[in-house]
TrEMBL record:
Name of this protein: DUF3302 domain-containing protein
Domain of life: Bacteria
This protein's UniProt keywords: Membrane, Transmembrane, Transmembrane helix
Pfam families, per database record: DUF3302 (PF11742)
Transmembrane segments: 12-28, 40-60, 81-101
Region of interest (Disordered), residue spans: 119-153
Length: 153
């Protein structure tokens, strides 16, 4: 019986040793290296982080403008203004600008006969662009008068 009592006592002592507090090391850095790392992280959080967040916020808010520009939307200037106003109203108007950039202006088509603005002077339309906007007359056939091939006088 004596052997089991000694074993129990040894187990109790080992239990106390295991639960004894040990010195804690929170970082692999120490001294000046820890201070330098904290300084670098503070600069990143205070300077670089907000610059990245503000530029990302800006890029997100001009996205409807870029979409409308790519799609040759006839109300591009109004969409640009709505994107700018959305910045001042905390982004509440941004979903409207997004929907407007993807919409087809049916009343504009009824008034002007097409729902896209022709590309600016001197630039070629994109390959996926409707060629109905830009009428490119080919060479006039031989022997036809301007009235016969549709040219103005």
């Amino acid at each position: 019986m004596r052997g089991s009592r000694e074993a129990t006592t040894v187990r109790r002592w080992w239990g106390l040793v295991v639960w004894a507090p040990l010195p804690a090391h929170a970082s692999f850095l120490s001294g000046d290296a820890m201070d330098t790392a904290a300084d670098v992280m503070s600069w990143v959080v205070i300077i670089i982080g907000p610059v990245i967040l503000i530029s990302g916020f800006w890029m997100l808010h001009i996205l409807p403008e870029k979409i409308a520009e790519k799609r040759h939307h006839p109300q591009l200037e109004a969409i640009k203004m709505l994107c700018l106003l959305s910045l001042f109203f905390g982004g509440l108007l941004w979903p409207l600008a997004w929907l407007w950039a993807y919409s087809k202006p049916t009343l504009y088509k009824m008034a002007y006969g097409h729902d896209r603005v022709p590309p600016p002077h001197g630039s070629e339309p994109a390959a996926d662009d409707d060629s109905a906007l830009a009428v490119r007359p080919g060479p006039a056939p031989e022997g036809l008068t301007p009235d016969e091939h549709g040219e103005p006088h």
